[in-house]
Structures are given as structure tokens and as C-alpha cells.
């Protein structure tokens, strides 16, 4: 698994596309899929931030948090916006940073809302990224870019 800064250094164009899609003016937003105890997918809207070169999110005490603690696999998706026709999906493993007070302070400062102390900080470590670049106006199929590239 790699950090956001690793991904950004190795694939700057893809990282720029991901930033455009995940960052609505003022805050980061995406849809997080986790794996439930039964193995079924569970999807949730979340706020994200990039702090200290890491992609992070806060998760309330919930089944979503329990999913990430038990089986850290996730997928994070951003859809096109009014100004973007593309989409990005990031997969990887979430790592809880319960005792990292420095990282928590940076993440709290980066969020557009007050973060209650019971919210749990997770880093979304990146295993792969898929960027679907659509033509304007949108046409199918999109041009897909993968990181890391298939070898």
C-alpha cells in the first residue's frame, strides 16, 4: 500500500484529476465502499482530506468503522461534477490512527466541520487507482488510466 504523496509523485496527472473530482469547493467528498461482515459491500458518503501526504477521513462509531477495523479493504469513488466528465476510483486498505495526535490535529484542521472526539481517524492507503477520462461531451467508453500501470 502507498500513501497519497507516493501516488502523486508517480502519477501527477492522475492525482490532479482525482483532486479535481474529490474536492468540491471547500472540502473533499467521495463515496466509500467497505466490506460488511457478511461480505456484502456497504457504501457511504464521506469527507476526506490530504494531510502530511496522506489521504485521511474521520469515521463515526458505526458499522462502517467496524468494517474498516475488521477488514480494511475499501474503494473510494468520485463521480463527475458540473465541470468534470471523469470519474476516479481508489482501492486500498484503511489504517486507523487512534493514537497519532499530530496527524489527528492536522486532519481536524483540514476538515470543513468540527470533528467530535469520538470520530475515528483512518488513513486510506492506496493500492490502485482507476481514472476514467471521458471526452467532452461525454462519450463511451472512457479512456482508462491505471496506477500502478499494468505490467
Explain this structure to me?
With 151 residues, the protein is α+β, with helices and mostly antiparallel strands. It has one domain: Roll (Pnp Oxidase, Chain A), CATH 2.30.110. 24% of the residues lie in helices and 42% in strands. The protein contains 4 helices and 8 strands. The protein has helices at 4-10, 12-22, 63-70, 101-110, and strands spanning 23-24, 27-35, 41-51, 54-59, 73-78, 87-96, 120-133, 143-147. The chain has a 6-stranded antiparallel barrel with strand order 2-3-4-7-6-5, surrounded by 4 helices. β3 and β4 form a beta hairpin. It is globular. The model has no long low-confidence stretch (mean pLDDT 92).
> What's the CATH topology label?
Pnp Oxidase, Chain A
Show unreliable segments: none
The CATH level-2 architecture is identified as Roll
Mean pLDDT: 92
Largest sheet: 6 strands, antiparallel, barrel
Strand order of the largest sheet: 2-3-4-7-6-5
CATH superfamily: Electron Transport, Fmn-binding Protein, Chain A
**Number of domain units:** 1
DSSP summary: helix tally: 4
The share of residues in extended strands comes to 35-45%
- The tally of strands reads 8
What CATH first level would be assigned?
A: Mainly Beta
Distance between the termini: 17 Å
Share of helix, binned:
10-25%
**Basic shape:** globular
Instruction: Name the structural class.
Output: alpha+beta
Computed over alpha carbons, the radius of gyration is 15 Å
Q: Could you give the order of the helices and strands? A: HHEEEEHEEHEE
Amino acid at each position: 500500500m502507498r500513501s497519497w504523496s507516493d501516488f502523486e509523485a508517480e502519477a501527477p496527472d492522475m492525482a490532479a484529476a482525482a483532486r479535481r473530482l474529490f474536492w468540491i469547493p471547500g472540502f473533499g467528498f467521495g463515496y466509500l465502499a467497505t466490506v460488511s461482515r457478511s461480505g456484502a459491500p456497504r457504501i457511504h458518503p464521506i469527507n476526506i482530506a490530504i494531510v502530511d501526504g496522506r489521504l485521511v477521513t474521520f469515521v463515526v462509531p458505526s458499522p462502517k468503522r467496524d468494517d474498516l477495523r475488521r477488514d480494511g479493504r475499501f474503494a473510494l469513488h468520485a463521480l463527475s461534477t458540473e465541470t468534470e466528465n471523469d470519474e476516479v476510483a481508489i482501492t486500498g486498505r484503511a489504517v486507523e490512527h487512534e493514537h497519532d495526535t499530530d496527524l489527528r490535529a492536522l486532519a481536524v484542521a483540514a476538515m470543513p466541520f468540527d470533528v467530535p472526539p469520538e470520530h475515528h481517524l483512518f488513513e486510506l492507503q492506496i493500492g490502485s487507482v482507476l481514472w476514467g477520462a471521458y471526452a467532452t461531451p461525454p462519450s463511451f467508453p472512457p479512456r482508462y488510466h491505471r496506477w500502478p500501470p499494468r505490467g
